[in-house]
Structures are given as C-alpha cells and as structure tokens.
Amino acid sequence: METLDLVVVGAEWGFGRRANLIGSYTVACYDPETLRYLQVGKVGTGLTDDQLKELTEMLSGLMEGGEAGGVFAIRPKIVLEIAFEEIQKSPNYDSGFALRFPRFIRIRDDKDPEEADTIQRIGKVYSQQLKRL
To answer: Which pTM was predicted?
Structure first.
C-alpha cells in the first residue's frame, strides 16, 4: 500500500468501546495555491487503543465550531501518515478525490501541516494508477 501524509481537519466520536474517544478522522491534502486543506477521506482503522487515546488528547484542544451529531472540525495542526489501496475520483470531497481503504500508519510529528502531501501529488498518484490499469 502506498502512503500519504495528510492533515486532520475533522473528527467524529467513536461508538461502543470507542465511545469516549475520537474514532474517525477526516484527512486532507494541502493546496499551496489557495493555502487551503482539501478533504480526501476519513480514516478509522489501523489505530491501537493507545493511539486513539493519544490522538484524542492531541485533538481535543484543536476542536473548532459546534459539534453536530458527534462530528466536528479540527484546526489543521496534526499530520498523519495514511496508507491506502487506491485513489478514486469523488464528488463527496472538496479535493475531487477519495482514498479507498485508508489505514492509519503513524502520527507525523516531524511535519508541519504545510508539509503534507499536496493536491498536485494526489492528482499525480491518481494518474499513475490509471497508467497501471
């Protein structure tokens, strides 16, 4: 699986065993032309209980706006390395792309949000996939 370094821009409280933890993360790539973060998907797999606790603590001070149905915005500060099977075109995210089967790998505390993978890189990876088919 290929990986991307993406910024957490949203989150959702977990259910069941994860009820007191943030269990799902909306991730985004960076657009250096507009200085915006463009969503490319949600990830909630690949995390241990300890990683869920750590991320919940890290993100709790970055929550923005109201919480609607357990979903809330996150100020873009935390970069995660995310593995994925492929990238698809998608009208559901403002990047125009969606990650298929995303999986958390690690927190990239060595990177600032502006160092995350860009929309241009997402487009390049998408185009390379098409050439392989």
So the answer is: 0.93
